[in-house]
Structure formats: structure tokens, C-alpha cells
Amino acid sequence: MRTTVGIIGAGPAGLLLARLLHNAGIDSVVLESRDRAYVEHRQRAGILEQGTVDVLRAAGAGDRMDREGLPHDGIELRHDKKRHRVDFPALTGGRSVMVYAQTEVCKDLIALQLKDGGPLLFEAEALAVEGAETDTPRIRFRHEGREDVLECEYVVGCDGFWGVARKAIPAELTKVFERAYPFAWLGILADVPPSHDELVYARHDRGFALLSMRSPSVSRLYLQVPEGTDAGSWEDEEIWDELERRFETDDDWTLERGPITQKSVTPMRSYVHEPMRHGRLFLAGDAAHIVPPTGAKGLNLAVGDVVTFARALTYRKETGSAERLDAYSETCLRRVWQAERFSYDMTSLLHRAPDATPFEDRMQLARLERIAASRAAETDLAEGYTGFPFE
After folding, report:
1. pLDDT score recorded for residue 103
2. Whether residue 72 lies in the annotated active site
3. CA–CA separation, 310 vs 13, rounded Å?
4. From CA 247, how far away is CA 295, in angstroms rounded?
5. Is 328 annotated as catalytic?
6. How far apart are CA 70 and CA 98, in angstroms?
7. How far is the C-alpha of 66 from the C-alpha of 62, rounded, in Å?
8. DSSP 390
9. pLDDT tens digits along 116-143
10. Are residues 319 and 361 in contact, defined by beta-carbon separation less than 8 angstroms?
11. What residues contact 137, with CB distance under 8 A and at least 6 apart?
12. Bridging pattern class, strands 5-8 and 28-31
């Protein structure tokens, strides 16, 4: 089996890359270890930056997003029962975000790929990337009970933190930067309309809380909990009671309750692997970097990576120059580190560490008050949240 670009992973990054390459007249094959149902239903991110929305539209994958997605022009910050809204378009020259779940992005891209794209193989487990430093890298994979080889000109690893792509880069050539946080998020899906029309980020002495949504009838909410928490140890009413405490305001706002359909715990971690390229192997998304979810950057960073690769390969096709491919890692990492910084800032602003001192508590409150009082501070937050430009 032979192709120009072998893509490992059919998450939003791998699927979008396949679409971008198809539109540029470049063939690819996508290998995904899970079945289609799993890919289309795994709950992940739900906030799309302005740049991601624009890319999906330009790629021909934005029709259903524009019909069913929820455009958001701001977020609300809460602390000490106070409420402050950050108006994105007013601070960024018109930029905003879209609430549209990763599951729906994947469904749209899978449908397009199966309709007119290159091969998309589900239950095709990538076993190894070989010959990354040569002009003919290969992906060994297992599909339908037998091993096969995909011969490529380029390999892009969109296979997540635990995938095989990153393992093909020699350890002596890599640098890893990481931070583990001493808390996690207990997340729930609930069959109840959202209690606010925009996301609410709450800083509370008992811990952080986030009010989000998946649709006009489904709420997505999160609580900061200790690292290692078992989601099953929290009763439904206990979760609602704690959310109510942390979202409390000094006006008549109320939190609507409903049946909880799903519970999960998300660990918090920052991680960057450098470089993001070795020979003709390119890493994208969680294979190269992870951010804590506070800044809503994970999926959007992955989109930035594959857009950068697709543009670089198209440039190579049109001009014969590999200059942009050679600069892939450096180009992506500039954006990655700004997103890491923003996600770290949002996390440290809103979460209370287990060993937090009174001084640290007051510093958090001072930072929140600064955002509420300073247009410059608000603008910095709004620019980071709506997304750093693709280069």
C-alpha cells in the first residue's frame, strides 16, 4: 500500500489534515486504531477558536457547524459572588468562538472523507513508524487480523500522547517540558438546558468550577477535585450542591439541575515535546503537546499544526521548495508555547492549589480584579481565548 502522506489517527487533527490535503490535490491514507462508532462518540473538546471555525468553513466542513453550533461572543468570570463578562468581539476586532463538540467535528469530517476523500481505515492499529529519516518512511500496521505496510513520502502522527509516532524520534534528539497539576476536573454531562448563555469560569475558595454546554438542551459542567478522584465517588446531588456553591452570585441567578448522564475525571497536565519533526515524520496535536483544558486550546492547537503542515506541503508541491516543511517544528512551537502560556495562566488564575497560602489567594483575586478593571488586561485574555493566528 502506498500514498503521499500517511496519517496516523482519525481524531479531528488527522481527519482535517486529510481533508486539507484532498482539497490541495495531495493523496493520503488515514489509519485509525478504533472503530468508527468510538471515534464519533468519544467526548473531548467543545470550544472552537475563530481560526478553527474559519478553517473548517474553508475546507467545506462547516455547514452543519454553522447550523447547529452555538456562536459565543464572550465568557463570564466569577469570584466572591461577583460577575464580569469579557466581550470578545469588542476587544479583538470581531473575533469570537463556537461551541461545537469534537464528536460533531469528527462526524462531519468522516462523512466527507468517506464520500470523496482518500482511504480511511478504522480498526487499523499503527505498530511502528520506520525509516523516518529516509525519503521513504513506512508505517507498519495491523488491519483485519493481518500486518501490512503503508509506504509514504511523509508520515504525520496525529495519534495522541500514547501513540507510536513520537516513539520513532530518537530519545537523544528530544527535549520534554512538562508540569503535572495537583488537581483534576470532575466533568458531567446533564440533560438540562445551560443555566447561562455563555461559559462561566468561577474561582472559589473551595475550588474552580466551569459551566459549559454541548447544545441548547445539554449542559457540560466541571468541578476542580483532588488528583486521583474517582468519579463514581460523587453522588449526583452532591455534585449539584457543590456546583451551586461555587457558582453563587449576589444577584438572582440560579443553577438549573437535571439528570446526569455521564461522569468522568480529567487529569491536568502541561506537556511539550521538541522537536515536532524528525526527517519525514511530523507530530501534530497531543502527540506533541498537551495543555490543561482551562484555556480550551487542545483541539485548536492540533488544528494549527495540521494547517501548518498542509500549507507547507502544498508550497512544496507548487514551488519545489522544502523551506516551509523544514520550518514546521519551529513554526508550530511558537504557537504551541503561547497556548501553553495562556492555558497555564488561566489555570493558575482560577484553581486553588491544595497548599495555597492566603497571599496566593489574594494574588488570584487581585488578578481577577485587574481583568475586570483594565481593558488592556481584558484584551490579553480575549486575544488568547479566541486564538493565536496560524502562521
Report:
1. 92
2. yes
3. 11
4. 19
5. no
6. 6
7. 6
8. P
9. 999 999 999 999 999 999 999 999 999 9
10. no
11. 6, 129, 130, 131, 152, 153, 154, 155, 279, 280, 281
12. parallel
What lies within 8 Å, CB to CB, of 124 at 6+ separation is 31, 32, 33, 141, 142, 143
Catalytic site residue 201?
Answer: yes
Give the other-Cβ count within 10 Å of 181's Cβ: 18
**Per the residue annotation, which of 222, 278, 293, 351 is the catalytic one?**
293
Bond prior to 275 in cis (omega within 30° of 0)? yes
The grid cell for 232 is 463514581
* Cα distances (Å, whole numbers) of residue 249 to 80, 202, 212, 245, 364: 8, 10, 17, 9, 18
Residue 346 has pLDDT above 90, yes or no: yes
Per annotation, catalytic residue among 201, 204, 273, 278:
201
Q: How far apart are CA 288 and CA 158, in angstroms?
A: 9
- Examine the residue annotation and report whether 344 is marked as an active-site residue of this protein: no
CB atoms within 10 A of CB 363: 14
Q: Is the pTM of this model over 0.90?
A: yes
Catalytic, 41? Answer no
pLDDT of 139: 98
- Kindly tell me the number of DSSP H helices and DSSP E strands found in the chain: 12, 20
25: left (phi over 0), alpha (psi -120 to 50) or beta: left
